[in-house]
Write a structure and sequence with these properties.
3-stranded antiparallel β-sheet, globular, 3 strands, alpha+beta, Rossmann fold, 4 helices, 24% helix
Length: 107
Amino acid sequence: MTENAHRQAAVRVRGLRRVFGTRAVLDGLELDIARGEFVALLGASGSGKTTLLRILGALDGADGGEVLVPEARTVVFQEPRLVPSKKVLANVTVALPRGRRDDGRRA
């Protein structure tokens, strides 16, 4: 990543480590997410996906490494929160701020 890209990164993770007991679920993770970029975390159960999201959202701490994220951030929990009476699009955009729901509909 170039120096300019470093300045444009919305999230920057270097050498992230998180240990539970004797198990390191994150060990030396490196990650850059650019502003406006969408990222999907894929992996087996227990591979550290939720742990990473919790660290990025300041809901959990790291045991080592560096995590740089914007001061203003929003956390959306992973549990299903579907409203049966709403259509699919309304359920998908429900987490967007009120002024941004039209952006979600256009996407």
